[in-house]
Every structure is written in C-alpha cells, then in structure tokens.
Amino acid sequence: MPKPLTEEQLKDAEICGYVFPVRTMDSGRVKEIRTTYEAVESRKGEDVPQLMSVKPHVLFKWLFLLGTTPKLSGALEDLVGPNILLTTCAIWPKDAGDPRFVTWHQGSAYFEHGPMDVWSAWIALTDSRFDDGCLKYLPGRHKNPEMIHEKTYNPQNMLSRGQKVLPGQFKVSGAIDEELEPGKCTFHHFQLAHTSEPNNSDRRRIGILFVFCPTHVKPTTELNSAILVRSEDKFGYWNSGPIPESGLDAAHLRHYNDFWKSYVNPENIFEAERSAASK
Ligand SMILES: O=C(O)CCC(=O)C(=O)O
Q1: Domain span including residue 265
Q2: What is the distance in A from the centroid of ligand 1 to the CA of 195?
Q3: What is the pLDDT of residues 114-151, one digit of tens each?
Q4: Structurally, how many domains does the chain consist of?
Q5: Does any domain span residue 56?
Q6: Looking at the domain assignment, is residue 2 inside a domain?
Q7: Across the chain, which distance is largest between two alpha carbons, in Å?
C-alpha cells in the first residue's frame, strides 16, 4: 500500500522539521467540523470551558475523532512509527482583524518528553494565509538545542503564559509561511520554533492542533496523560487519558480542569524555564 507521505516529504521532515500541506479532510467534513466547533464555542463559559488550548479532545467526541482520523494517523505513522499516542490538542481561532498573535516558541519547552520524537499536526478549518495570521516556521531549527523562553503574560499573546523565545537566539530571516486551505494540515516537530501574527484579513482563521508521539517517549512530569490511537503500547509510560463519549462527561471535565490547573500553576517549572533560571 502506498505510504501517505512521499520519500521527499519524509526527507523534508527530517531536514526542515515540518511537512505541509497534507490533506486530511474533504470540504464537506471541514464544514461539519467548523459548524460543530462554532456551536461549542458559543457555549463557552456555560457548560464548556472558556479556554480550549490544552487537551479539549478529552471532552468532545468530534474532536477526538478528528485527531484519530486515518489520514492523519497514516501520515503520523510515516513520521513516528506504528505505535502512536495522542497527548494534547488545542484550538486556535483568530477572528477577522484579530490583533492577537503567538510569539516565537517551541512546544517542547512547555511539555517535557524524552526522547523528543514528538510531532504536532495543525489542521486548518478555514483558509490560513499570510494575511489571516498563518503559522510560520524556522526550518531546521528543531535540531538545535532548546532555546530559552520567558513568560510575558501579554493578554494579546494567545499562548497561556505568553511564552516567548528570548531575543538573540535565532534569526527570523529564513522563516516560512505555512499557508493552508481548509482541510489541509501541516506537521511540525515539537522542537521547531514557530509563531503567528495578527489576523489582518476580513475572515476568521481557525486551526486545530493535535500532538502525537510514539509509545517509547516518556513524559518527564507526572501531570501527563495520553490516548493510544494506533497499534499497541508496550511501555506504559503514560497515564491513560479518557476517551470522550457523545455528551460532556463530568469526570472528563475534571480531568481537563485538573490538567489545566497544573499546566498554568507557576510552581510547575518546565525545562526551558529551568535552564533560564540556571544561567
Ligand atoms: O495557531 C496559531 O496561530 C499558533 C499555533 C501554535 O502555536 C501551536 O500550534 O503550537
């Protein structure tokens, strides 16, 4: 059977730390998912949490199904092998003219894993072009040592702690815009530096991110859970995350809220912050 990713794409993944664009859904499915998401979004603060930037896939079946869609896991199998865990998810909506942005950062600095064989898949539910504030990558940067981040807590920064690579550690001149059509996805290595600018267009931009790793990867903090999405887990390093059923389940909401509290707890210092503190 042909592999979802070509040899050339796999070579690019190794050298540059990303692969795009990969189609994961047709336009009918994209419309369905967007409508479902926007209906959930309109209930935020009622029965749905305000923030859906860490692990909302444990709450909603449609989101879990999107993260385990065969086109996605097929491509991931090419990147990380057959035994795949889904560790987290985040929804990234930017409204038309939205001034919010995401500073340069590496996912790896805020979720500890070892080894760092971890890949993110960012799926576009809308167009995501330069003017819409698409993702930008620094090709090849995933191979360099982790950079030092600071927390800015800037309310315009969409990252939970406004985390940002401290200046002087890289040059942005080679940055690549990851322009995507709805239903297409970009995969990036967890250590690849990325950013996104405000949405200067008159249309909404929505992306859904899922993070995956092979089962041999260990979480290096207690607070992590994952869901096995392909093959088997012979290692058992992760707590099993709950798989959502059709309605919002109270126990899943507790799991979500506990993880979120722990994620934003200032006492939980992550790797990049530790190195910054030791300099
Ligand atoms: O969607 C965005 O603009 C940022 C996404 C991001 O930072 C991430 O996927 O880690």
Answers
A1: 7-278
A2: 7
A3: 899 999 999 999 999 999 999 999 999 898 888 999 98
A4: 1
A5: yes
A6: no
A7: 52
